[in-house]
């Protein structure tokens, strides 16, 4: 394939033309679904296939206990299991498996370094993850997994140009689902939404497993949702569910579409099943906010208490979820505590996300002059994200900068009028109040 195909960031016009041609030639998956909302049903345990894989790996290691690659793979599998289940105890199992691999092969063990990098990323120790990724690449320069570890760490550390360069190297070395999807995220952060969708279509064309198809369809759905195209978003989510019927991310996508169309009660039912299968903090917070938007305040408060307990358990295991904790505290708790959490996370990584969360936490704590600098930093790359624009607009409104606030809030609703069941209505209310000044 032509080298120009992967110059996603250096020759955008040429790449866009090539991408368009490939997508037109690709055979897509079109799903025919009945009208109406998805049926709410019990979601199978999404971790079951991975648990079975781990059980097989452990049996193999019982037979061949000195398999350094096998121990490293087991560690990586436990990292993924912790992500799916939100059970931090699996991080300890990952650490032990990776330690065993390194004990058996202390030198030139790229597999263990990649596993440690994935674990460090999961634990939000992005500086360590960057170092592990770099060390692994020194041993195995063409490793897609090592590039993935490095790219993820650089992106979270806010080293945008270095992340883009690393994505380009990964594309040059091994174009495929891991590189195309990371290119898509890099493009999205830079405001190139159409190019990001094109890269995801290339990833979908390259996908060979149900999990890869589901992953690509989910992120295509997210791009569509984030631009307010609910029909396209639902089509992508449901096409993904054809490949992976119990995929919780895709189920979450369809629930968000249900809420965006105004059926809050139906969305709450879908989130009940979703959070029973995958009780991760992000999903639980969204469920609580849906309950709040549906005026079910006591139930919402109970959910928020449950999330606080999960954060406590995570912290006991050495896992810090400061972003979600800051979100919870800013919206449903103590804004001063939200600022503390956000500052702790910003101290570890200066990404678009952490800049935005710190800006919003400072705003909720009444520190709008400080908040604006972080809001400006969050928007510097050009990401077209409704929540970012809304946060910046509300900060500007609090500072009395009426015209700029109105422009930012208008932009948020133009990007995605359905971005939040709680905050989209507040954006409209604030706009109306600004117009009356």
From TrEMBL:
<dbReference type="InterPro" id="IPR011990">
    <property type="entry name" value="TPR-like_helical_dom_sf"/>
</dbReference>
<feature type="repeat" description="TPR">
    <location>
        <begin position="386"/>
        <end position="419"/>
    </location>
</feature>
<keyword id="KW-0802">TPR repeat</keyword>
<dbReference type="Pfam" id="PF13432">
    <property type="entry name" value="TPR_16"/>
</dbReference>
<dbReference type="Pfam" id="PF13181">
    <property type="entry name" value="TPR_8"/>
</dbReference>
<dbReference type="Pfam" id="PF14559">
    <property type="entry name" value="TPR_19"/>
</dbReference>
<protein>
    <submittedName>
        <fullName>Tetratricopeptide repeat protein</fullName>
    </submittedName>
</protein>
<feature type="repeat" description="TPR">
    <location>
        <begin position="214"/>
        <end position="247"/>
    </location>
</feature>
<dbReference type="InterPro" id="IPR019734">
    <property type="entry name" value="TPR_rpt"/>
</dbReference>
<feature type="repeat" description="TPR">
    <location>
        <begin position="75"/>
        <end position="108"/>
    </location>
</feature>
């Amino acid at each position: 394939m032509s080298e120009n195909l992967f110059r996603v960031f250096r020759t955008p016009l040429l790449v866009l033309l090539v991408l368009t041609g490939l997508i037109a030639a690709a055979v897509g998956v079109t799903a025919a679904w009945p009208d109406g909302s998805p049926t709410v049903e019990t979601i199978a345990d999404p971790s079951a296939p991975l648990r079975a894989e781990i059980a097989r790996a452990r049996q193999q290691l019982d037979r061949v206990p000195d398999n350094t690659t096998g121990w490293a793979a087991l560690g990586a599998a436990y990292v993924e299991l912790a992500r799916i289940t939100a059970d931090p105890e699996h991080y300890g199992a990952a650490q032990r498996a990776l330690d065993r691999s390194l004990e058996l092969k202390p030198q030139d063990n790229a597999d263990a370094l990649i596993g440690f990098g994935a674990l460090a990323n999961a634990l939000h120790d992005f500086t360590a993850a960057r170092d592990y990724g770099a060390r692994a690449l020194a041993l195995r320069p063409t490793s897609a997994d090592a590039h993935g570890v490095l790219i993820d760490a650089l992106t979270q550390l806010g080293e945008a140009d270095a992340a883009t360069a690393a994505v380009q190297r990964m594309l040059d070395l091994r174009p495929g689902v891991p590189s195309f999807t990371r290119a898509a995220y890099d493009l999205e952060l830079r405001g190139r939404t159409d190019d990001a969708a094109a890269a995801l279509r290339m990833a979908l064309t390259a996908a060979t497993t149900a999990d890869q198809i589901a992953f690509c369809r989910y992120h295509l759905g997210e791009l569509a949702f984030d631009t307010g195209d609910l029909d396209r978003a639902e089509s992508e989510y449901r096409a993904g569910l054809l490949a992976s019927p119990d995929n919780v991310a895709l189920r979450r996508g369809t629930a968000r579409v249900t809420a965006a169309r105004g059926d809050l009660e139906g969305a709450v039912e879908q989130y009940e099943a979703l959070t029973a299968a995958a009780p991760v903090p992000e999903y639980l917070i969204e469920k609580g906010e849906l309950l709040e938007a549906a005026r079910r305040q006591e139930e919402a408060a109970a959910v928020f208490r449950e999330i606080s307990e999960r954060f406590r358990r995570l912290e006991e295991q050495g896992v810090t979820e400061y972003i979600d904790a800051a979100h919870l505290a800013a919206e449903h708790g103590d804004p001063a505590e939200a600022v503390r959490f956000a500052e702790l996370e910003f101290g570890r990584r200066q990404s678009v996300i952490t800049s935005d969360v710190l800006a919003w936490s400072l705003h909720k704590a009444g520190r709008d002059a400080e908040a604006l600098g972080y809001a400006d930093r969050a928007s510097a790359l050009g990401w077209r994200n409704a929540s970012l624009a809304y946060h910046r607009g509300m900060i500007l409104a609090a500072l009395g900068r009426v015209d700029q606030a109105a422009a930012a809030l208008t932009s948020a609703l133009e990007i995605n009028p359905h971005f939040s069941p709680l905050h989209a209505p507040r954006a409209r209310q604030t706009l109306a109040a600004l117009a009356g000044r």
